[in-house]
Amino acid sequence: MARHQPVHGASLLTLLQMRQTLLFLPCFLICLFARAADTPPNIVMIVSDDHLWSDYGFMGHPHIKTPNLDKLAGESLTFRRGYVPSSLCCPSLASIITGLYPHQHRITSNDPPIPAGMKPGAFQASPLFEEGREVMSKHLESAGTLPQRLAAKGYLSLQTGKWWLKHFSRGGFTHGMTKGGRHGDSGLDIGRKTMQPIYDFIGEATQQQKPFLVWYAPMMPHDPHTPPKRLLDKYIDKAPTLPVAKYWAMVEWFDETCGALLKHLDDKGLRENTIVVYVSDNGWITNPKTGRYAGKSKQSQYDGGLRSPIMLRWPAKVQPRMSDELATSLDFAPTLLKAAGLEPTKEMPGLNLLDGAAISARKTIYGECFTHNFVDLNVPASSLKWRWMVDGYTKLIVPNKTNQPDDSVELYDLKTDPSEEKNLAADQAAKVNGMMAKLDAWWKP
User: Which of 187, 292, 349, 418 is the most buried (most CB within 10 A)?
Assistant: First the structure.
């Protein structure tokens, strides 16, 4: 029989050290996992620009190729019936970043009011224009922004792309590209020319062990429609006209940039605890002759200007699924604040997209469209053109007679008439009256 070897002093010491290590290890792991659980998620906000809700592969477009966004949709909680509250760039972006309706944050329009008798070009070159933009930026600061609120949790935040409201710091961003130009000046290089500022920022935040927010809002597929020839060539023979082919190619170019950004997150090991959200700021339908936007898209009261898919990917926490429940870009702020361990403000009307019961219970969403230039910088109702609401699949549009004196009330069944061709208001007066009461209870200017 083998005999047990005596334990010498050195071996006994080793055994004691191992025992202490083993006792310590569970404590260490518990603390490690607790810290990981408490780590706020990184956030990447992808905001497409002038992009029709149906112009994606996963939304059924027969020709446009969007493989990266299709993949993102399949990995996300994806709302096919998402909406923005207003169909114009600046107020829509301001609503995304504040979580408030335009009439709440008071940025209803793209530009300040034009003085009587002054031409737009002369006005934009005048001190009056900059004075008006300063008022708009102060409205944003008063409303409060997502980057500003996330700073309480130690977030670093980067602005790239479209940004109307002067220097990026006015939105609470710690880093940014836009120095104060009307659309976004050097910020507009993102996507079209480079993605490097985002990669550099993510590297800096990671090195500092800080959670981060990236605002990726390139001027894409927004005009000028100048896609690479290799992409345009794919659509020349499929599109009805050259202007349409250029827009389709721009959508695919934008999709490529999204793929590059998402791949970078994967390459840096950031996928699991990074929330990626997606929406378009407003819709766009190309006029096949001119290449400009058609009437029922951008700036309009119709779904062609207001509807957008809304996606949220968070692999560590969220199971992917497709949903036909209603969602709105106003939901981003409360959702992301909650995810970061912060509470939404009482003024925020949106819901937490991860609260399934609340989302299922919501049957109605609201919105408002305004003039391109303010009428009065401090009185939102003065610039109002239409209020609208979607109740289930029924949509009501109510014009403001001051700015739209020739318009009538409109009622549509979006399930059978998604392009809003048949106005049912005259035949369904009782339904109009019932919905009007709800619309007035939401906001009656």
Answer: 187
Residue 110 within any structural domain of the chain? yes
Would residue 435 count as lying in a domain? no
Q: What is the pTM of this model?
A: 0.91
Q: Mean pLDDT for the chain?
A: 93
Residue 323 lies in a domain: yes
CB-based contacts of 396: which residues, under 8 Å, 6+ apart?
388, 389, 409, 410, 411, 432, 435, 436, 439
d(CA 369, CA 381): 10
Residue 238: CATH number of its domain: 3.40.720.10
Tokens of 191: 């996507």
Q: How many domains does the chain have?
A: 1
Q: Which regions of 66-166 does DSSP assign to beta strands (E)?
A: 77-83, 156-161
Q: Residues with Cβ < 8 Å from 93, sequence gap 6 or more?
A: 47, 162, 163, 164, 217, 281
**Dihedral (CA of 137, 141, 145, 150) sign:** positive
Q: What is the DSSP string of 298-362?
A: TTSSSHHHHB--EEEE-TTT---EEEEEEEEGGGHHHHHHHHTT-PPPTT-----TT-HHHHHH-
Distance CA 433, CA 396 (A): 10
Q: Mind listing the pLDDT tens digit for each residue in 81-99?
A: 999 999 999 999 999 999 9
